[in-house]
Amino acid sequence: MTRTEYRWLLPSAMAEPELPGDHGRRARRTVRDWVVDITAFLCAAGIGLLAAAAIDADRTTPDGVVLVDSLIGAAACCALWTRRRWPVGLAVVLTLLATVEPVAAGAMLVALFSVAVHRPFKPVAAVGALALAVAPVQPYLRPDPDTSFVASTIIGVLLVLLVLSWGMVVRSRRQLVITLRERAHRAETEAELRAEQAQRLAREAIAREMHDVLAHRLTLLSVHAGALEFRPDAPPAEVGRAAGVIRDSAHEALQDLREIIGVLRSPGDNGEGNRPQPTLATLDALIAESRRAGMKVTLDNRIADPAAAPAATGRTVYRIAQEGLTNARKHAPGAEVTVTVTGGPGDGLTIEVRNPAPAEPFERVPGSGQGLIGLTERATLAGGRLGHGPEPDGGFGIRAWLPWTS
Question: Residues 6 or more apart from 10 whose CB is under 8 A from it?
């Protein structure tokens, strides 16, 4: 499969894979989400209770302030239920709130963790910079009597960095899992595309082979059956000869069909199977068969040693000559066909099949044009080229060049 065929499957190499909930579009919480949210709430509440106990242990703090701290801490913990929808806004609010309310510190850390998990680096860096900048404010406004200002500031900074780093690691791991799943899915899709392409190419090869093999035989049947139909008073010798050609062509067509079906039924065979393939050396037999069918064919084969030609190239030359004779028999009956083969190692092989316009009107045999299309594909796949078209005298010609390495 070419790159163009599956380029639409590849995501941008610079884009980060999005995680569920990155844009706050989760339909509803799953059981896992409920467990995580409850755990986060309990962690924030636990840290808040420790901070409230430390404030209550300080006899210098009025009871009213302790009550307000407790209420604000509870509200901050409850606000964590909105962290999946508005993680950045909640983290900013709780960071500013924690500068004056130590009880909200646990909720702030959970909010920072949520931002690191659900948002890319830029928002995380901005919120983290804000949290680090205000880290000295809370120890300055609400100092802990048992801890110095410097120690409290260092602890606050370390907690912020630890929570942000942990959240970014969790996000990276989730992105890795999503990327691996996408790669696995993409690999399966590409494998399916390759299988479909292989099947399509196999069908095209089989259709081309059946056309090349059977069209020649069936055309002989059609021409001679038509002759018997429109000339019932023909001499017995001519009728017998035509009947013999019809019988031999039908037998050979059935044999070719059996061989092709045998190839299809054999799972271990390649595209060519075990049946003998035509080569440049068998071109004389093809010409002789056409002459026996009543065609006027002139062969000018200038290849000194046809058996030395590459098998694939010789087979392609044979198929081109076969298709040219078939077309001449269908569209120019009675006209003399000229088949010319020239070239050699290093120069390549050139084959020309030409026929003049028919001398008298005739009943045309319908054609689809698929044979010439198949010949063009054959020549292109072999590394050569093929052209065809009407001649100035009203006839038709096919000319092909195929490589023959020295």
Answer: 186
- 290 part of a folded domain: yes
Look at residue 264 and tell me if it is in a domain: no
Q: Do residue 26 and residue 156 come from a single domain?
A: yes
SS3 132: helix
CATH number at residue 400: 3.30.565.10
Helix (H, G, I), strand (E, B) or coil at 128: helix
Within 8 A by CB and 6+ apart from 55, the residues are 61, 65, 66, 69, 102, 103
Per-residue pLDDT reduced to its tens digit, 167-177: 889 888 888 88
Q: Are 182 and 13 in contact (CB under 8 A)?
A: no
For the chain, the domain total comes to 2
pLDDT for 1 equals 44
Neighbours of 302 (CB within 10 A): 10
Q: What is the DSSP letter of 100?
A: T
One domain, residues 176 and 72: yes
Length of the chain, please?
406
Contact indicator for 22, 117 with CB cutoff of 8 Å? no
Residue 208 included in any domain: no
123, 311, 313, 321, 386 from 404: Cα distances, Å = 65, 10, 7, 18, 15
In a domain, 256, yes or no: no
Each residue of 146-155: pLDDT tens digit? 778 888 888 8
- Give the integer Cα–Cα distance in Å for 199 and 187: 18
Q: CB under 8 Å to 336, separation ≥6 — which residues?
A: 296, 297, 298, 355, 356
Q: Same structural domain for residues 182 and 37? A: yes
Domain span at 45: 3-189
Q: Catalogue the long-range contacts made by 19-22 (C-beta closer than 8 Å, 24 or more residues apart).
A: 19/117, 19/118, 19/171, 19/174, 19/175, 19/178, 21/84, 21/118, 22/118, 22/119
- List all residues 6 or more positions away from 104 whose beta carbon is below 8 Å from its beta carbon: 48, 72, 73, 76, 94, 97, 98
Q: Are residues 61 and 181 in the same domain?
A: yes
Q: Is the pTM of this model over 0.90?
A: no
